[in-house]
């Protein structure tokens, strides 16, 4: 750590950590686990975003498997080149929508690599069981196409049938070589492909989309926890979203599902409390409203959620309108990385005179406002997906079910202590993340057994203990 801390520039810390991962995997994970709050923003959001933008010029060795259009018809063979056979989790991207940064083509590889290192560090999945994959169908990023250091195919993105066939070959090959229980996590695909792939493979494969389902689960956990701060239940709230993409609609659907379970109302009725700016699938009867401030004034939401990928859209006017409507406005600025955040923590607290309950997608430092210190929560997907994946793996689940997402949200919300609430936190500190992941894994596994989707039988008596016993630990031995 002393060595890593010599670097002032986050990207240099990132490169030093990637070198360490390559050179001494055990030490990499030991550092990451023991210094998780300090290193998470280095190996993951926000620094990983910058790393992807500059991936070609900081390239050292391939850290994952690239599968390009040129490998069409040979994907099974390509997979066989990977040195490990016993794969449990694949994180795959096509690089079209990396965080809120757009199309980075092949340079998106930093995301599967980073997410899988969190599967290991936070969820205890063995490093050798993790496979990062980037599907290279080209890029529409003109700057990258002209960049001498670009590492991918220099062509416009393949779409339509050509795209679908490559993805289908990949999904079939993966099941053929690694079996039915391999978890495939889709990450940072563009909206249309993300929804299509999840719908298409959800019934035949064990698939999970972190941007839709993981984000939904982590945000729902924060909202369940927030009820302890503001009182009442989810059904007492009105939600307004800016951005109806993967995250926005994913969160909205999961909130509606949870509300409908809590209050026994049909999901369609629960949806009436949720509004998305510019959304077709969620359209309500209402005259058109042009901008967000007017939407806030007209809808009078108690919760404002930013999932647009566009920074600085929660302006002073917007936050002030939320604060004038609510004693404790809940404001979630979820777009990543920090540059795309809808507002900063400081803006949320200052413009609401210290009344906002705020969380963001990317980390912000504590803020002092009128002598009081506010610690912003981070609605970080890393709270959920590592434990969620571990729960699927340890129960031998063969499909993902929405009720498992609800179980994960409730498990995470239950880990927020009174002491955390006293500081205004909606999420527990990351320092305890392995314990949190074990609890999430246990509850997800329990749900898999309950739904008849688990294949590891008999069901262990104590699922938390069992989860802990499954977790990889980078322990050093004492030699005499
Ligand atoms: O990476 C994160 O922290 C959340 C995420 O998946 C994204 O923004 O695409
Ligand atoms: Mg993502």
From TrEMBL:
Molecular function via GO: malate dehydrogenase (decarboxylating) (NADP+) activity; metal ion binding; NAD binding
Cofactor annotation comment: Divalent metal cations. Prefers magnesium or manganese.
Amino-acid positions noted as binding a divalent metal cation in the UniProt annotation, renumbered to this chain: 187-188, 211
PROSITE patterns the UniProt entry points to: MALIC_ENZYMES
Keywords, sorted A to Z: Metal-binding, Oxidoreductase
Gene Ontology CC terms, in alphabetical order: chloroplast
CDD domains hit by this protein: NAD_bind_1_malic_enz
Active site: 44 (proton donor), 115 (proton acceptor)
Sequence similarity: Belongs to the malic enzymes family.
Designated name of the protein: Malic enzyme
The organism of origin for this protein: Punica granatum
